[in-house]
Structures are given as structure tokens and as C-alpha cells.
Task: inverse folding
């Protein structure tokens, strides 16, 4: 059983399932809903934003103040497919 942690403190290059999000309509329009699979592709220093790949589609930056309100749990190890390879391999951006 995975422990829920906030998105800002989750490890880079990990694959996570979104567990809880703040009530911000923009997050849902960016494809972030409970149960969505995401991977952290980078984090800027000094409290900068987290770079997040959403379900093999596109990368967005989430500010630290919002990222600390988003709870995630590590996904790999619980799913039958290699979700890290699937999410991290896409170079395409869809709009």
C-alpha cells in the first residue's frame, strides 16, 4: 500500500496517481483529475514549479503553492503494465 505524499515532495522521474486535488477549475481543464497518472519530469530550484507530464500527453508547470496541495501515491508496482516507460516515452504534445 502506497503512502500519499504531496506532489511537490514526490521524487523526480516517478509515476504517480493523483489522489486529492484542490478545488481549482484550471487543474481539471489541464487534465488533472483524481485517478490521473502523472510523472514528474523536473523541479526548478528555490521553490520553483514542478514540471509534470500528464498521462503521456503534455508537460505543464505547477507552482509550489498548488503542488503542495495535491496528494499523490506512487503508481508503479501496483499496476500490471510498465507505466513509467509508457508515460515517459512520449514526445508528442496534444492540445
Result:
Amino acid at each position: 500500500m502506497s503512502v500519499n505524499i504531496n506532489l511537490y515532495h514526490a521524487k523526480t522521474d516517478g509515476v504517480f496517481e493523483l489522489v486529492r486535488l484542490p478545488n481549482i477549475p484550471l487543474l481539471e481543464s489541464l487534465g488533472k483529475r483524481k485517478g490521473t497518472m502523472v510523472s514528474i519530469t523536473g523541479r526548478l530550484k528555490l521553490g520553483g514549479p514542478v514540471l509534470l507530464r500528464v498521462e503521456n500527453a503534455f508537460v505543464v508547470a505547477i507552482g509550489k503553492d498548488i503542488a503542495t496541495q495535491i496528494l499523490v501515491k506512487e503508481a508503479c508496482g501496483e499496476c500490471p503494465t510498465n507505466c513509467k516507460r509508457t508515460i515517459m516515452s512520449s514526445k508528442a504534445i496534444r492540445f
Notes: The helical segments are 25-29, 64-67, 83-89. The longest strand covers residues 37-43. The beta strands are 5-6, 15-20, 37-43, 50-54, 58-62, 71-74.
